[in-house]
Each structure stands twice: as C-alpha cells, then as structure tokens.
Automatic annotation (TrEMBL):
InterPro entries: ArsR-like_HTH (IPR011991), WH-like_DNA-bd_sf (IPR036388), WH_DNA-bd_sf (IPR036390). This is Transcriptional regulator. It comes from Mycobacterium triplex. It comes from the Bacteria. CDD domains: HTH_ARSR. Pfam families: HTH_20. Gene3D superfamilies: Winged helix-like DNA-binding domain superfamily/Winged helix DNA-binding domain.
C-alpha cells in the first residue's frame, strides 16, 4: 500500500498537514523539506502532493538554483480559498430572509428584489413575446430553467402557471411572507423584459401540498 494511504480519514488529515506546511512557508519547499517538517517519509509527502496538485491547491514551481545534477522538485500552495470545502447556501438564504422579515414592508422589498433579479436574469434575451401565448411560454421556460417544474393551466377562464417544485422549499415553508414575494417578483421581472402583454397578478402559495399557482392577467395593447 502506498505510504500515506492507510485510511480515508488519516489520509485526508495528512494531506491537510502537507497543505498547511506549504501555506505557512514564504518560499517553495522540496518534498524532503516537507517530510522533515512533518516527520514522515518523503514518499508519503509525494503521494499527497499528487492529490493536492490535481485539486489545484498546490503547484509545482521552477527550482531556483542552477548547477550540476537534477534540481529537486519545488512546490508551493496556490493562494486562494479552498474551493473544495463545504458550502452552506441554505444558511445564507436563511440569514437573508430573516433580515428581510425583520424589515418594515418586508413583502414589498422582497417583491422588488425578485423583480430586479428577474429583469437581470432575462437581460439580453432575444425572446420578444408579441402575443399572450408566446409570453406565457417564455415565462414557463424561465421557471423551468430555475427548477420550479411549471405547468400551464386554465381555470374559470383565467390563464395560470402551476409550480410543482420549489427550489427553496424548506425556507419557503418557514418564510412564506418573504420567499413567495421574491418568486412573484422574479416572474414579473422576467415578463417585463420581454415586453410581454401578460402580467403576473398574484402568486398563491401551497394551494395544494404540491402546488403553488401564479395567476396571469392579460394586458391591453
């Protein structure tokens, strides 16, 4: 078995140690120097360096000295945040929705934020809806790309779009008064950029356990 690969947990810990040594060094280091600093065999360091280089966390650099013989390989840490680490986007979303919820007129501010993002989302789109049918189709395409699993509906002569999936379900269940206005704003903003003769009048959340409904309003030319 390759030195340093005794177990997944132990191997990951040793790899972090190699990276730590390189991050704290002002100058590039040789494999032997890293091994001496950690008190391990050079082959162990070489094994973990291969992984770190493959993950773009460490890079090999040209040796500084010139002279007879093959110069030793030199390595240094790539100066950037670890892009392989854990993400907590849900936590960020909860913090932001909590901040909105604590404001006066939170629903209005959430609606405006969603509308601005909806316009930005569709900025530069070549989709130019000239009829209600095209406009609704355009809206459905936008919502589908965002993961809402939309479906066109008609009830009591009214055009609707049903949403069968909420990309922010866990947060929407607890912060409906903030998250749902954001969704409504996104739909309104997306239609505004297309010059659509259709507007989203309102969004009814969780009319069924697996359904939210956006009510559409045809605008006069």
């Amino acid at each position: 078995m390759t030195p340093g690969a005794t177990s997944t947990g132990e191997s990951a810990g040793r790899r972090r140690e190699v990276l730590r040594i390189l991050r704290t060094s002002r100058e590039p280091m040789t494999i032997v120097a890293i091994a001496d600093a950690l008190g391990v065999h050079p082959n162990t360091v070489r094994f973990h360096l291969d992984s770190l280089v493959g993950d773009d966390q460490v890079e090999q650099v040209e040796p500084g000295r010139k002279g007879p013989g093959r110069p030793p390989l030199m390595f240094r840490a790539v100066r950037q945040m670890d892009r392989g680490g854990t993400r907590h986007y849900r936590l960020l979303a909860e913090i932001l929705t909590m901040a909105f919820a604590g404001d006066k007129d939170s629903a209005a501010k959430a609606l405006a934020a969603g509308r601005a993002w909806g316009r930005q989302l569709d900025a530069g789109s070549s989709a130019d809806a000239t009829s209600p049918d095209q406009a609704i189709g355009h809206l459905v395409d936008v919502l589908d790309r965002l993961g809402f699993a939309p479906e066109r509906r008609r009830a009591d002569g009214e055009q609707q779009v049903g949403l069968r999936h909420c990309p922010f379900l866990e947060i929407a269940e607890n912060r409906t008064a903030v998250v749902c206005p954001v969704h409504l704003g996104i739909m309104q903003g997306a239609l505004e950029t297309s010059g659509a003769p259709v507007a989203v009048e309102r969004l009814d959340a969780f009319v069924e356990p697996d359904l939210c409904v956006a009510h559409l309003e045809l605008q006069e030319a």
